[in-house]
C-alpha cells in the first residue's frame, strides 16, 4: 500500500502537485519576464498569457513535425550500439546512439536556411512563443498520461520509486523504467534529442529575431549561442555516459522527466537568448573575456570530472586513470579519492553551475530575469546531490561514510 513507500518531493501530493501545476506557470512567467526584461507580476503574466497562449494549427504542426523529424532521423541514421547498465532482471538493454550525428545534420541545415536564404523564418518561433509553449506543455501531459497507462501492462519493469500504488505520485515520478516501442527507447530519446537539440535551435531563432529587429546580432547573443551550443554538443558527443546516470538507470519515465526533457529544457534553458532578443546587450571586450574564462573554467571541471569517472568506471587500469588514489569498497567497486573527485564529491555539478552562471552573466546586470537559471540550477543540483548521496549510501553502506570523511565537501572545497 501507498503508506509503506517512501515519497520524494515532500510526499505524494505537495511537491508533485507544485511541480505538475507550478512549473508550467513558471515557464509562462519566464516567457513574459524575458520579453519585458523584468520580473512580471501575476496580473501581467495572466494578461499576456490570456492573449497568446492558445495552441494553433501552426504550432501543433511545428512541434509534431519537430518530434517526428528527430524520431525518424534517430531511427534512420546509423549509430553506435551500446549496452546500458544491468537491470534488476539481470539483463542489459541496448541503445542506438546517434544524437551527435543528428545535431550535425540538423543544426547547420537550419542555420543555413534561416541566415543565408529567405526560405526559413526562424524568428517565427520567437513570435509564437506562448502558443508553442502551451503546445509543448499539453504534449508533455499527454505523453506522461500515455506512459502511465502503458506502464500498467503485464510484465513491465517498474522503477523502484514509481510503484507506490499512489496513482498521481506514480504518474508524476514515473512508473515504467525503460518504456520502449520495439528497440526505440523513449526515455533516452526524449532526454537527448528533441528537447536538447530543440534548445540549440531555439537559441538560433532568438538570434534570428534579433537580426530582424536590430539588423545585427550582438556579441552577448553570439556568446550565449556559442556557450550553450558547446553544452549541447558535449552532451551528444558523450551520449554514451548518459546510460549510467540515475535518470536512465533508476528513475521511471513520468511527468517529471517528460516535462523536464520536452518543455523545461527547451523553454527555460533558452531564457538568456530569449531575454537578449528583446533586451539586446553589447558587452565590452574585457567583460566578454571574463565571461568566457568563467565558462572555460566551468567546462574544465564539468568535463574533466565526468570523463575521469567515465574512463575509470570503464577501465580502472586505463593509462589516464590508473594513477588515481581510490577507496576499495565491500561491493567490489572503487571510489576515486584524488584528482577531480578528491576535491569535492560533486565537483562536476560545480563546473556545470559555473557554466550556467557564465550564460547568465553574458546578459549583463540590467535585469535579474536571466539569473533565474542560476538559482533554479543550484536548487536542482543540491537536491540531486542529496538523492545521489542517499543512493550511494544504500550501494556502499559504511564505505560511503568513509568516503565522505576522506572527501568531506560536496561542491566547493573548504566551503560546502
Ligand atoms: N543541465 C542539467 O540540467 C543537468 C545536468 N546534469 C549533469 O549531468 C552530469 C551527470 O550527473 P549525475 O548522473 O547526476 O551524477 P554524477 O555524474 O555525479 O554520478 C553520480 C554517480 O557517480 C559515481 N560516483 C560518485 N562518486 C564517485 C567517485 N568518487 N568515484 C567513482 N565514482 C563515483 C556513483 O555511482 P557508481 O559508484 O555506481 O558508479 C554515483 O552514484 C553532471 O555533470 C551534472 O552536472 C545533471 C542533471 C541536470
Ligand atoms: C524542473 C524539472 C521538471 C526537472 C526535471 C529535471 C530535468 C530538467 C533534468 C534531469 C536531468 C537532466 C539532464 C540533462 C538535461 C536536464 C535534465 C533532463 C542533460 C541531458 C543536459 C546535457 C548534459 O550534458 C547531460 C547529458 C549530462 C544532462 C543529463 C541530465
From TrEMBL:
Pfam families according to UniProt = ERG4_ERG24
Which keywords fit this entry according to its UniProt record? Lipid biosynthesis, Lipid metabolism, Membrane, NADP, Oxidoreductase, Steroid biosynthesis, Steroid metabolism, Sterol biosynthesis, Sterol metabolism, Transmembrane, Transmembrane helix
Part of which pathway?
Steroid biosynthesis; zymosterol biosynthesis; zymosterol from lanosterol: step 2/6
User: What catalytic activity is recorded?
Assistant: 4,4-dimethyl-5alpha-cholesta-8,24-dien-3beta-ol + NADP(+) = 4,4-dimethyl-5alpha-cholesta-8,14,24-trien-3beta-ol + NADPH + H(+)
GO terms for MF: Delta14-sterol reductase activity
User: Which parts pass through the membrane?
Assistant: 12-36, 56-77, 98-117, 129-150, 213-233, 253-271, 283-302, 353-377
Give the principal location in a single coarse category: membrane
Q: What is the lineage of its organism?
A: Eukaryota, Viridiplantae, Chlorophyta, core chlorophytes, Ulvophyceae
**What protein family is recorded?**
Belongs to the ERG4/ERG24 family.
Keyword NADP in the entry? The reply is yes
Q: How does it sit in the membrane?
A: Multi-pass membrane protein
- What protein am I looking at? Delta(14)-sterol reductase ERG24
Q: Name one GO cellular component term.
A: endoplasmic reticulum membrane
Task: Extract the InterPro entries matched here.
Answer: ERG24_DHCR-like, Sterol_reductase_CS
> One GO BP annotation here?
secondary alcohol metabolic process
> Where, subcellularly, is it found?
Membrane
Amino acid at each position: 500500500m501507498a503508506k509503506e513507500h517512501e515519497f520524494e518531493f515532500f510526499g505524494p501530493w505537495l511537491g508533485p502537485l507544485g511541480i505538475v501545476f507550478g512549473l508550467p506557470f513558471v515557464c509562462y512567467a519566464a516567457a513574459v519576464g524575458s520579453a519585458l526584461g523584468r520580473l512580471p507580476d501575476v496580473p501581467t503574466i495572466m494578461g499576456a498569457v490570456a492573449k497568446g497562449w492558445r495552441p494553433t494549427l501552426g504550432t501543433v504542426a511545428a512541434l509534431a513535425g519537430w518530434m517526428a523529424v528527430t524520431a525518424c532521423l534517430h531511427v534512420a541514421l546509423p549509430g553506435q550500439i551500446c549496452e546500458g547498465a544491468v537491470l534488476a532482471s539481470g539483463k542489459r538493454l541496448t541503445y542506438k546512439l546517434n544524437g551527435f550525428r543528428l545535431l550535425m545534420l540538423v543544426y547547420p541545415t537550419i542555420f543555413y536556411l534561416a541566415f543565408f536564404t529567405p526560405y526559413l523564418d526562424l524568428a517565427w518561433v520567437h513570435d509564437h512563443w506562448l502558443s508553442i509553449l502551451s503546445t509543448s506543455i499539453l504534449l508533455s501531459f499527454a505523453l506522461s498520461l500515455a506512459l502511465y497507462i502503458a506502464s500498467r501492462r503485464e510484465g513491465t519493469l517498474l522503477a523502484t520509486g514509481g510503484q507506490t500504488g499512489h496513482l498521481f505520485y506514480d504518474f508524476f515520478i514515473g512508473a515504467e523504467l525503460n518504456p520502449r516501442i520495439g528497440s526505440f527507447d523513449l526515455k533516452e530519446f526524449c532526454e537527448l534529442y528533441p528537447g536538447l537539440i530543440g534548445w540549440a535551435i531555439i537559441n538560433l531563432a532568438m538570434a534570428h529575431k534579433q537580426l530582424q529587429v536590430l539588423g545585427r546580432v550582438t556579441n552577448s547573443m553570439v556568446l550565449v549561442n556559442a556557450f550553450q551550443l558547446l553544452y549541447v554538443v558535449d552532451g551528444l558527443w558523450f551520449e554514451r555516459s548518459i546510460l549510467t546516470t540515475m535518470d536512465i538507470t533508476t528513475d521511471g519515465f513520468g511527468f517529471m522527466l517528460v516535462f523536464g526533457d520536452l518543455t523545461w529544457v527547451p523553454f527555460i534553458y533558452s531564457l538568456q537568448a530569449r531575454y537578449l532578443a528583446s533586451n539586446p546587450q553589447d558587452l565590452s571586450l574585457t567583460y566578454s573575456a571574463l565571461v568566457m574564462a568563467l565558462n572555460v573554467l566551468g567546462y574544465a571541471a564539468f568535463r574533466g570530472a565526468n570523463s575521469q569517472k567515465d574512463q575509470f568506471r570503464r577501465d580502472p587500469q586505463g593509462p589516464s586513470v590508473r594513477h588515481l588514489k581510490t577507496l576499495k569498497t565491500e561491493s567490489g567497486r572503487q571510489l576515486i579519492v584524488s584528482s577531480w573527485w578528491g576535491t569535492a564529491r560533486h565537483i562536476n555539478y560545480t563546473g556545470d553551475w559555473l557554466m550556467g552562471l557564465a550564460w547568465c552573466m553574458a546578459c549583463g546586470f540590467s535585469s535579474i530575469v536571466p539569473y533565474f537559471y542560476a538559482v533554479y540550477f543550484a536548487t536542482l543540483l543540491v537536491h540531486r546531490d542529496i538523492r545521489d548521496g542517499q543512493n550511494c549510501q544504500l550501494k556502499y553502506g559504511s564505505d560511503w561514510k568513509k568516503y565522505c570523511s576522506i572527501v568531506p565537501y560536496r561542491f566547493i572545497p573548504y566551503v560546502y
